[in-house]
Automatic annotation (TrEMBL):
The lineage of its organism: Bacteria, Pseudomonadati, Pseudomonadota, Alphaproteobacteria, Sphingomonadales. SUPFAM superfamilies: Thioesterase/thiol ester dehydrase-isomerase (SSF54637). InterPro entries: ACOT8-like_C (IPR049450), Acyl-CoA_hotdog (IPR042171), HotDog_dom_sf (IPR029069), TesB_ACOT8-like_N (IPR049449). Gene3D superfamilies: Acyl-CoA thioesterase, double hotdog domain. This is TesB-like acyl-CoA thioesterase 1. It holds the Pfam family 4HBT_3C. Residues 21-104 form the Acyl-CoA thioesterase-like N-terminal HotDog domain. Residues 130-252 form the Acyl-CoA thioesterase-like C-terminal domain.
């Protein structure tokens, strides 16, 4: 079931909605972090009147989520320029995700610069199926190039062109939130044996409106520190035209 279909099936409440996350969106024993975050955003954007665009999010992956979940959101404060909305996703085992979304209107400023050149990878612009059984269940909802792993001294990089198979009618910002967590941890580039992993926190800033061509996004992640079972990585999302759309940071637990 695609994300647009999942959202169509939701049962709305005053503070959010109930919905079922199907097995096709699982990643091990929990739902793919991107879909949990996207559901939280969908509730958050309805929590206030005339909210400006999403500018930043702080997400904590607290526990496993699967099956039927409750998604709630509360407007904490709305000022002239920015609004803060707290959201959570709760399943049978309790809370699985907690998030704070910051919505902020564009403002005039004397400061304007950017530094985010597109890596030297050519967009595929052709649908390429991800072979069944080559990744977690949720990966079958996407198309993309094989992951480019680069392991070097003092760090590890991974990147991939990625797009959602069914994005019909989806809010572009919801799509960006869904896509942004679509890579495995960069630290996997230097792993010699498979080991369990778990995302702990994810922080991202939206730099430009989430617009691209034919649904293609380039995701990249770089880790320059992994020690004592914890890895920190920087993350970026570019559109098909080479514009940097979002930047983020993630903390990941490495169980082995």
């Amino acid at each position: 079931m695609s994300l647009p279909a999942i959202l169509t099936s939701r049962e709305d409440r005053a503070d959010g909605f109930d919905v079922v996350i199907p097995e096709s969106w699982q990643q091990g024993r929990t739902a793919y972090g991107g879909i949990s975050a996207a559901l939280a955003y969908e509730a958050a954007k309805r929590a206030g009147e005339d909210l400006p665009p999403l500018r930043s999010a702080q997400i904590s992956f607290i526990g496993p989520l699967s099956g039927r979940v409750s998604v709630t959101a509360k407007l904490e404060r709305q000022g002239r320029n920015a609004a803060f909305v707290a959201a959570s996703v709760t399943g049978e085992g309790g809370i699985g995700l907690s998030a704070m979304f910051v919505f902020m209107r564009p403002m005039e400023s004397q400061v304007s610069f950017t530094d985010g050149d597109l890596p030297d990878l050519v967009p595929p612009f052709e649908a390429k199926e991800i072979p069944a059984g080559t990744g977690p269940s949720f990966a079958q909802n996407f198309e993309g190039e094989p992951i480019d792993f680069t392991a070097g001294r003092g760090g590890a990089d991974i990147r991939r062109w990625f797009r959602l198979k069914d994005r019909h009618g989806l809010d572009p910002m919801t799509e960006l939130v869904l896509m942004g967590d679509g890579l495995p941890p960069a630290a996997m580039a230097v792993m010699t044996t498979r080991a369990p992993i778990s995302s702990l926190t994810w922080i991202f800033n939206v730099l430009r409106p989430p617009e691209t061509r034919d649904g293609w996004w380039l995701l990249s992640a770089r880790s320059d520190h992994a020690k004592d079972g914890a890895s920190s990585q920087d993350m970026s999302v570019w559109n098909a035209g080479g514009s940097l759309i979002a930047r983020g940071m993630q903390s990941i637990a490495l169980f082995g």
